[in-house]
Amino acid sequence: MRIFIIIWIGQFLSLVGSRLTQFAFNVWLFQETGSVTQFGLLVLCGSLPSLLISPIAGGFVDRWSRRWTMIIADFCAGLCTLSIAWLFITGNLEIWHLYIIEALSSCFSTFQANAYAAATTLLVPKENLPRASGLTSLGRGVSKLIAPVLAGMLLPIVHIPGIIVIDFATLFFAIVPLMVVTFQELNNLDEQTGNKSFWKEVIFGWNFLTTKPGLLALLILFASNNLFTGIFNVLTTPLVLSLTSPTGLGIVLSIGSSGVVLGSLMMSIWKAQEHYIKTIFGFTLLAGLFIFLAGLRPSLSLFTVSDFCLLATYPVISGLVQVMFQKKVPPEVQGRVFGLKDPIATVGLTLGYAIAGPLDDLIFEPLMAPDSILAGNIGKIIGVGQGRGVGLLDILLGLVVVVGTIAAYQYPRLRLLEEELPDAIPDEPFATSKF
Q1: Mean pLDDT, residues 9-28
Q2: Which of 31, 294, 327, 347 is the most buried (most CB within 10 A)?
Q3: In sequence order, what are the residues at sequence separation of 6 or more whose Cβ sits closer than 8 angstroms to the Cβ of residue 372?
Q4: Residues with Cβ within 8 Å of residue 374, at least 6 apart in sequence
């Protein structure tokens, strides 16, 4: 676990630096263009390549050394940072440069994340996998929480070139531990993959999951809940703005982010060694309940508490899903399986982002207008007017999550996954490591 923590600290510091640069150029882009569409395209360039390349990256990760994959991916991400710095300093930076560099960075991050997840199984004892997952989630949550604040404080002082220097400096904290730390890789990796068609390896992840119906069902449940999560997240801003000012929105979002940190801390000290599936079901039911409560009344305090509690469930659910895959998937094929698992889970979230706006604008807000057909019945309970369409949608989403979770629990292959599918990793770390 010590070697993992050393690597984790370096990756966390590098992630903070990357988010500082991301924030700075998001601000620059919006100030230069004033276009929400341009900003949305930049976000798309940061997410879409990861979805498309992840299965391919998984095939390479299983062929290559996981440690060197992380080193090279981090180094290439650093080259992207240097490229954008040079273009900005010389006054040649164009909007389309940001799109290309963001897409390339997304590709390198996909390789790095896939190798990092697969390497965790090699470095961490089985009983500590939940803690490792919690620390990983904690790093993401804390970086999202502090990077915008730090960037907002630093930008007026050091400006964009200074932010880039900080980002590039933090990159060394990610690469140096990986260069110094060594851990034994899987000896038979090349022999197992060398004689197979690469494209057969790419689709191997799907073929593997179809032979493990319990794992496939767990992934479908997780992706489905991500769909509802995506819808809820997008509609949080309009609902809160119907109740308070933009300043109040910032406070609510910060409180919600602290819920993610709390959930991650819970995972980082997790000691239970069994009943992971039941815990996933329990926290998913709680998530559905909190989504339901968030929309029940036009109350800022009720929404804030519900949102905080809801976001605290996310790291536990996603962390234990990750642990189940790490325990049940053989280490030598984890790159390919994770390369499929992650984009499937993310597709649900992305689809939720895409449909949330039309659902609210075209269906639910008109349904909860003061003169609508529902104003005299449902409107008397949850309120009418601006934001109550989002409230009704949240209520329905919460009910769907609860009912869907109860229905999924009836499937024995999923409910009994821990007992029926043997662990594919030993109790001790799969490979030795040293510093």
Answers
A1: 88
A2: 294
A3: 366, 379, 384
A4: 367, 368, 392
Angle, alpha carbons 164-167-172 (nearest 5°) = 135
With beta carbons less than 8 A apart as the criterion, state whether 237 and 101 touch. Answer: no
Task: Specify the residue for token string 């819970």.
Answer: 266
Axis-axis angle for helices 213-241, 334-358 (nearest 10): 30
Average pLDDT value for residue range 327-336: 88
Do the domains 204-421 and 1-183 match in fold?
A: yes
List, for residues 216-245, the tens digit of each pLDDT value. 999 999 999 999 998 898 888 888 888 888
Q: Are 146 and 154 in contact (CB under 8 A)?
A: no
Tell me the three state secondary structure of residue 5. Answer: helix
Secondary structure of residue 202 in the 3-state scheme: helix
Q: How confident is the model at residue 190 (pLDDT cuts 50, 70, 90)?
A: very low
Residue 287's nearest CA partner among 373, 202, 183, 405 is 405
pTM over 0.85: no
Residues 366 and 246 sit within 8 Å (Cβ to Cβ)? no
Amino acid present at 183: F
What is the total residue count of the chain? 435
For residues 105 and 151, give the distance between their C-alpha atoms in angstroms, rounded to a whole number: 20
Q: Tell me the C-alpha distance between 171 and 74, whole Å.
A: 7
Q: Phi and psi for 434 in degrees, rounded to 5?
A: -150, 160
CA–CA distance from 202 to each of 20, 288, 386 (Å)?
34, 34, 47
Dmax (CA) of the chain: 70
Task: Kindly list the domain boundaries of the chain, sorted by start residue.
Answer: 1-183, 204-421
CA dihedral of residues 426, 431, 432, 435 (deg, nearest 10): -130
Q: What is the DSSP string of 316-335?
A: HHHHHHHHHHHHHS-GGGHH
Bridge partners, residue 414, by sequence: none
**What fold does the segment set 1-183 form as a domain?**
Growth Hormone; Chain: A; (1.20.1250)
Kindly report, residue by residue over 297-325, the tens digit of the pLDDT: 999 999 999 999 999 999 999 999 999 99
CATH (one of 2.120.10.30, 1.20.1250.20, 3.40.190.10, 3.20.20.80) for 204-421: 1.20.1250.20
pLDDT class of 69 with cuts at 50, 70, 90: very high
Rounded Cα distance between 80 and 77, Å, is 5
